[in-house]
Write a structure and sequence with these properties.
This protein has three helices and eleven strands, in the order ββββααββββββαβ. It has 197 residues and is α+β, with helices and mostly antiparallel strands. The strands form three sheets. Strands 1, 2, 3, 7 and 11 form a five-stranded antiparallel sheet that branches. A three-stranded antiparallel sheet has the order 4-6-5. The protein has a three-stranded antiparallel sheet with strand order 8-10-9. The chain is globular, with a radius of gyration of 19 Å. The two termini are 13 Å apart.
């Protein structure tokens, strides 16, 4: 199955790993590994905890001008928070998507091109609709084989699509409850954790 991730594909020691009952939805299930999403979904809000350039995840870098100086947010945006024209041309030249740009610590940074990769091993996820498909649990995470994870993902999509139909009646054209026009569900629950590839 294909997955997508901003950052490297090496297992990372997770500093916010916890044992015991104090785990939250976003604490990793094990001490080492990395977060990803099933392709083509991604929730950029979940990237913000580790999006400062120089972080071990290696998902972002500073935008630098022709003099190799970091670009200040105040120089990048005008008073209406629109990107100045010269920077739009510069981003196009550098092949950086505007949607990957953000301001942090008064400077402009951007997410590097995400990695899309195939993976077929055991996978941690939040889709625990059927305990039969689960090997074990850790906090709010469940571990499954890839075959069972794919079954759970299909079940989750079907369940969410039924919920949308109940809210709006029969929805014409929406075949994916996590992607498409109009009302859709947040993809944050689709986040996965992979120990190693």
């Amino acid at each position: 199955m294909k997955f997508i991730r901003y950052g490297g594909l090496n297992a990372i020691k997770q500093k916010h790993y916890k044992t015991g009952e104090n785990k939250t939805f976003h604490n990793p299930p094990v001490r080492k590994g990395f977060y990803a999403f099933p392709y083509p979904y991604i929730d950029k809000f979940l990237l913000t905890a580790t999006n400062k350039p120089g972080h071990i995840s290696n998902k972002s870098e500073w935008l630098k001008d022709d003099n190799n100086d970091k670009v200040k947010c105040i120089d990048f945006y005008n008073e209406n928070w629109d990107i100045r024209k010269k920077w739009i041309k510069y981003l196009k030249y550098k092949k950086i998507k505007i949607s990957n740009i953000y301001c942090i610590d008064n400077f402009i940074a951007f997410y590097k091109k995400p990695k899309i990769f195939d993976y077929n091993g055991l996978i941690w996820h939040h889709l625990d609709l059927n305990q039969y498909f689960i090997i074990k649990n850790s906090g709010e995470w469940s571990l499954s084989t890839m075959d069972n994870y794919i079954k759970l993902l299909k079940l989750e999509k079907h369940k969410r699509l039924n919920e949308l139909n109940k809210i709006n009646g029969k929805i014409t054209g929406i075949i994916d409850p996590f992607k498409g026009p109009g009302l859709t569900f947040s993809v944050d629950e689709l986040e996965v954790f992979i120990e190693k590839i």
